[in-house]
Write a structure and sequence with these properties.
14% strand, single chain, alpha/beta, 422 residues, 40% helix
Length: 422
């Protein structure tokens, strides 16, 4: 899911007694089988760009004879609204679900299985994109879009510091930040202490798991030395920043800080450039992007892939028509349109050409392909990220001087309590 911060939120009021036992079909009429039927698709505010929506609607009509009605939903309160809707006899036929939420709805029995459809239309999708659609090895959704963070930098400041190329390794990046610090009056990097999703990407890069199975249940793995290694890398980044250690990138909006013109770089989503330009249109020629470099040049830094999946309601009466919609909506042509129009990362290799038309997407693509991942894909994880997020508290504690091991011991009881909630 998106909207400023890519965030996983709890599924509120989980569905009770729902089983994925809809009719799976609906009444077919006419030569096309679906003529004059109507399909209802719930999408979140801002997810479906205008041209994509227009061409998908037209193609779906031409292919099936049916019409599609997109009903735009607001993020505020969507978990409760969606949970209620999917438990009713007449749910929306297709729904957009945040990729980190899919497991919770699937476990509740609210979603239809889509394994055959995935084989038909998504055989070449990036595994990292599709992973969030799988629950216990079964396909309960299909990836619609996802994106990840890049380095958004101020070309003017980098030129002031005499920097002529962009870094290809983490050590080169840190040397560039150090050069900016020494040769300009600009802040090398604006990185708040609680940029949790960047930290999550770093844990992916170190091979850390944030949860583990113990005694038949999920518990925190925050004390793992690999997590501590990720936090050490984060500390190295944050040492170049004067941003608050107890705030996230939305408090204030980091792109608005960048727009003041004296910040060398951000760890940002590509669409944050629009926020900066809204605040300062004169910066348009000064904004550039590059892939967050990793320890070695051949593998970028680990990144969190945040986005949305499409799912079919398990209680839906029009499941066959819903699958026809997904064939259209997630075709190569329409996936390419999403990349070009909204700036999301390409989910298969043959969409790379579309990414080249958008500098932020082009910068994000290598990490999405080689180093992308998500938060733990278990239903219980959503509760961990509820406010106040204990992972953010851990980060602030370490940045404030506490050892990663001690900070983990302080925070893990809260994480375990949340993971225990069913």
């Amino acid at each position: 899911m998106k909207r400023g911060l890519v965030a996983a939120t709890a599924v509120v009021g989980m569905l009770v007694g729902v089983t994925a036992c809809g009719s799976g079909g609906g009444t077919k009429t006419g030569a096309d089988g679906f003529k004059d039927q109507k399909l209802t698709v719930w999408v979140m505010n801002g997810s479906n760009p205008a041209q994509w929506t227009e061409q998908v609607s037209a193609q779906f009509k031409k292919k099936t004879g049916a019409t599609v009605e997109f009903k735009v939903q607001q993020w505020n309160g969507i978990q409760q609204k969606l949970s209620t809707a999917l438990s009713e006899d007449t749910p929306p036929d297709v729904v957009e679900i945040g990729n980190t939420q899919t497991a919770a709805y699937a476990k509740a029995g609210a979603l239809a299985e889509l394994g055959d459809l995935k084989k038909e239309i998504g055989a070449d999708w990036n595994e990292a994109f599709n992973k969030a659609s799988l629950v216990d090895g079964k396909q309960y959704a299909l990836p619609w879009f996802a994106g990840n963070r890049v380095v958004m930098y101020n070309k003017k400041i980098w030129a002031e510091a005499g920097l002529k190329t962009t870094p290809r390794t983490r050590s080169e990046l840190f040397r560039a930040f150090d050069t900016i610090k020494k040769k300009t009056d600009a802040e090398p990097l604006y990185l708040p202490g609680q940029n949790w999703y960047f930290f999550d990407g770093l844990t992916l890069g170190t091979g850390a798991d944030l949860v583990k199975r113990q005694g038949g249940k999920w518990v925190s793995n925050l004390g793992d030395p690999k997590v501590a290694k990720a936090m050490d890398i984060y500390q190295q980044y944050q040492s170049f920043s004067t941003a608050p250690k107890n705030k996230d990138e939305a408090t204030p909006q980091q792109a608005e800080v960048f727009a003041k013109g004296r910040t060398g770089a951000l760890i940002a989503m590509g669409y944050e450039a629009a926020t900066a330009l809204k605040a300062n249109p004169k910066m348009k020629k000064d904004i550039g992007f590059f892939t967050i470099p990793g320890e070695n040049a051949d593998k970028p830094e680990g990144v969190f892939l945040g986005g949305s999946n499409f799912a079919v309601a398990g209680m839906g009466k029009n499941q066959e028509l819903a699958k026809e919609f997904l064939k259209v909506a997630l075709s190569k042509q329409n996936d390419r349109q999403m990349v070009k129009e909204s700036g999301w990362a390409p989910k298969s290799p043959d969409l790379a050409d579309a990414a080249q038309e958008n500098p932020a997407v082009a910068a994000a693509a290598p990490a999405a392909e080689k180093s992308g991942g998500t938060t733990p894909l278990i239903p219980q994880w959503a509760a961990v990220e509820n406010i106040p997020n204990p992972i953010k508290s851990y980060m602030t504690a370490v940045l404030g001087g506490k050892s990663p091991a001690d900070a983990a011991k302080d925070i893990e009881p809260e994480i375990n309590a949340r993971l225990a909630k069913q």
